[in-house]
Design a protein that fits this description.
By secondary structure, this protein is an alpha/beta fold. The protein has a 6-stranded mixed sheet, sandwiched between helices. A hairpin with a 2-residue loop joins strand 4 and strand 5. It is globular, with a radius of gyration of 18 Å.
Length: about 240
């Protein structure tokens, strides 16, 4: 039996107002695979991502991450395995310094000062921001903040990185830096994005969602060459 980092079986979800957001989602993501989730606004991409680490829990279906099935007893372990990076870095950065932000997760896990420090420096190195440890995050550019937000998640040593619109609001240079950085990371990555240029450059596999369903799942190059598919689901040819 192949071990997948992410397994979703028949996941359905309706918001409390009755709006159906996901219908019977089935998904397998292999270790180290980099997968893009694309589709129009309201397709269910963010709803799907919020289920992966149990922020949303009332969906029907089965979710397992790194072989751990999500449930009441395992939610802590699953959350540790899934690093969620929100679209706005300001939702993730709230400490006096960059170091404190990146140290927050490992400290919360009860690790020793030495281990916390090692993890912070390692995470900052992975995003090429070691010189920023003592800086104040709200004085930084959006691109710098995004990299710090990714570091706050990497310091938890997750198996899966889940990114929501990572290139939104970035200028071309910051966007290039981000793409190169994500390419270097060893983690399995699931990324929701409207930036199909980035998707083409970075993600060999693409999943198209619309109206709460997966409507296509395959090689990015093939799906991006399918003009009819893109047009039907409100996507612009890159």
């Amino acid at each position: 039996m192949t071990h997948h980092t992410v397994e979703i079986d028949n996941l359905s979800y309706a918001y409390p107002d009755g709006h159906e957001a996901l219908y019977g989602i089935n998904l397998r993501v292999a270790p180290g695979e980099k997968v893009a989730l694309v589709g129009p606004n309201g397709a269910g991409k963010t709803t799907l991502m919020l289920h992966l680490n149990g922020i949303l829990r009332s969906g029907k279906g089965r979710i397992a991450v790194s072989g751990i099935e999500l449930g009441d007893k395992t939610i802590g372990r699953v959350r540790a395995a899934v690093g969620l990076v929100f679209q706005s870095p300001d939702d993730q950065l709230f400490s006096p310094t960059v170091y404190d932000d990146v140290a927050f997760g490992p400290m919360y896990q009860g690790l020793s000062q030495e281990e916390v420090r090692a993890r912070v420096m390692n995470a900052l190195e992975m995003v090429h921001m070691t010189d920023y440890a003592r800086r104040v995050s709200h004085h930084m550019s959006v691109g710098e903040k995004k990299r710090i937000a990714i570091a706050t998640v990497l310091s938890m040593r997750p198996d899966v990185l889940v990114l929501d619109e990572p290139s939104a609001g970035l200028d071309p240079r910051a966007r290039r830096t981000l793409i190169n950085l994500l390419r270097e990371l060893p983690q399995t990555i699931l990324c929701s994005s409207h930036d199909l240029h980035m998707v083409r450059q970075l993600f060999p596999r693409m999943i198209v969602m619309d109206n709460g369903r997966i409507v296509a799942d395959g090689e990015t190059a093939k799906l991006l060459a399918d003009a009819a598919l893109l047009e039907t689901h409100g996507l612009e040819m890159p």
